[in-house]
Inverse folding.
């Protein structure tokens, strides 16, 4: 008998500090032990699904009730919810096109670093023999990153869901993930835009044209313009610019649905973004994402069939790394 069939499952595995449910399982039943066997390619959680005959997708998809055939199998349900939500976040994820790095923490406070690269003397200045080299100061930032909890409340009952197919429930949970991803993208854009003394200064442009992109490209130097972010109204205007109607660009958009722009930058559509605003940035230098833990679910409620109000959320925040790696254009029509 394979060892995975003897693993003891209980809800306490979700509360292990700094470890996910799957990581705890992997410590008890390492995937390395299954190399060269029919179970190779499955992680520890997937082996537990096989153990209890739970199929979460495909023609033979089981029902929610299948998770609750025993107290042990019920412990697998919160991880199923987390994975389905994560699939939705991944499919709607635009964060990867905006951030340079993701920092994961096990706390609710985080202080980023700041440098004087953007304000220091020109780095390419000649250093005479015996002279001191130009310096770059790296220090702790004076302010903490504001972390936001984004999520949805799953409101239902076990009776309403028990006979529902898992692949159908996955579709609903993926939409929750897509909502969280959209909210996080809006948070990222808000940080790039800034507020108060840190507000980004937008260049006035009126109706956008190709010349505006060239101006943004120049404004970002020495950073690279590789990402352009805009809301729905502005995207519609951008797609009317003659350079956007280039045959090759059109084939890319019509064939793959991926928006593109002149100068080789990725065009990111953020419907929640302020109207008539365009952000241009170097995604390799502009923004840091700070993530406090993974997707959080009310595992106690889910295991105990108390689905009436079960929270699904993720906590994260964003911080500018190099403020000059982002520029803005205001496309408000001129009177």
């Amino acid at each position: 008998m394979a060892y995975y069939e003897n693993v003891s499952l209980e809800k306490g595995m979700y509360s292990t500090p700094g470890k996910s449910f799957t990581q705890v399982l992997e410590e008890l039943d390492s995937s390395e032990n299954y190399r060269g066997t029919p179970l190779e390619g499955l992680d520890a959680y997937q082996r537990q699904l096989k153990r209890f005959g739970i199929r979460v997708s495909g023609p033979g998809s089981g029902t929610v009730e299948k998770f609750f055939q025993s107290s042990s199998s019920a412990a697998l349900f919160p991880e199923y919810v987390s994975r389905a939500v994560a699939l939705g976040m991944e499919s709607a994820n635009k964060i990867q096109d905006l951030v340079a790095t993701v920092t994961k923490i096990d706390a609710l406070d985080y202080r980023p670093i700041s440098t004087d690269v953007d304000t220091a003397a020109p780095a390419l200045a000649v250093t005479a023999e015996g002279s001191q080299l130009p310096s770059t100061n790296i220090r702790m930032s004076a302010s903490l990153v504001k972390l936001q909890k984004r999520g949805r409340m799953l409101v239902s009952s076990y009776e309403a869901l028990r006979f529902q197919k898992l692949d159908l429930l996955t579709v609903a949970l993926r939409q929750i993930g897509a909502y969280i991803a959209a909210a996080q993208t809006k948070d990222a854009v808000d940080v790039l835009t800034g507020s108060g003394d840190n507000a980004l200064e937008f260049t006035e442009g009126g109706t956008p044209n190709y010349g505006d992109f060239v101006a943004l490209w120049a404004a970002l130097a020495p950073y690279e313009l590789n990402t352009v972010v805009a809301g729905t109204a502005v995207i519609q205007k951008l797609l009317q610019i003659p350079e956007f109607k280039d045959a090759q660009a059109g084939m890319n958009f019509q064939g793959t649905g991926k928006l593109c722009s002149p100068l080789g930058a990725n065009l990111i559509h953020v419907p929640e973004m302020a109207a008539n605003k365009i952000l241009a940035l170097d995604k390799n230098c502009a923004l840091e994402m700070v993530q406090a833990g993974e997707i959080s679910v009310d595992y106690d409620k889910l295991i105990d069939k108390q689905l009436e109000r079960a929270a699904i959320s993720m906590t994260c925040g964003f911080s500018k790394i190099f403020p000059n790696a982002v520029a803005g254009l205001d496309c408000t029509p001129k009177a």
Q: What stands out?
A: The CA atoms of residues 186 and 272 lie 6 Å apart. The chain has a mean pLDDT of 87.
